[in-house]
Amino acid sequence: MPAETRSLEGTVIAVTGASAGIGRSTARLLVEAGAKVAITARREERLLELESELGADSVAWVAGDIADADTSERLVAAALEKFGRLDSLVASAGIGMYGGIVDGSDDDMKSMIDTNFTGTVFGVRSVVPTFLAAGGGDIVIVSSVAGIRGGADEAVYAGTKGAQLIFAGAVDRELRESGIRVTTLCPAAVSTEFAIGRGRTAGDAWLDDVLTPEDVAGSIVFTLQQPRRVRTTQVTMWSAAQAS
Q1: 3-state SS, residue 14
Q2: Is the pTM of this model over 0.70?
Q3: Which residues are catalytic?
Q4: DSSP track, 47-110
Q5: What radius of gyration do the chain's Cα atoms show?
Q6: Domains by residue range for the chain, with CATH
Q7: Helices (runs of H) and strands (runs of E) counted in the chain
Q8: What is the rounded distance in angstroms from the CA atom of residue 67 to the CA atom of residue 243?
Q9: pLDDT tens-digit series, residues 105-152
Q10: How many CB atoms lie within 10 A of CB 190?
């Protein structure tokens, strides 16, 4: 018999970092699976492009910085106003740079911490009241293998990703009995705009051998489709060509 999966038809899923990369690909696959999406990112023009591509009936959007608590609150409000419900959150907004621990400016370090970790905290805090009222929900946090193993020249970035992992585990244990599942998805390198000009160069040949945004988005959709009796707490992903 085929494995049991849960239909996403008619569900409403908030996706942060939806202007590019993993977030954008996730929004696309979710709509293909029958879901509605509430999306956010800083670049309004990218959100409008995605709304046009996916159809206005399937998209609610809010432009803003995920590091501001107000952005997540407005995203939840937009989902509830347009669709009348909110079932899941995919927290995929993130930024990074490569360099030694003393490289980069103080503002660079603060920006990574605020976007990657503080933004995740605000996103989760904004959806939990709605999920509790509904009797359950799903939270998928896009972390990184860097948060598990660290790596040279990415100490602060890895620290933010490790913080996501600890945070997610704690929230999962806190809310599991309320029907809220929390998953951390930890991909290795993904070929996106991530760190371009900040340690990566567009067109680098090695990016052809790493994961694609669609690879990661597919795992997010698969996680959300698991029957409610299943808790997928952590997923790691590597491309076949990349050493682990």
Answers
A1: strand
A2: yes
A3: 157
A4: HHHHHHHH-GGGEEEEES-TTSHHHHHHHHHHHHHHHS---EEEE---------TT-S-HHHHH
A5: 17
A6: 12-237 (3.40.50.720)
A7: 8, 7
A8: 33
A9: 999 999 999 999 999 999 999 999 999 999 999 999 999 999 999 988
A10: 21
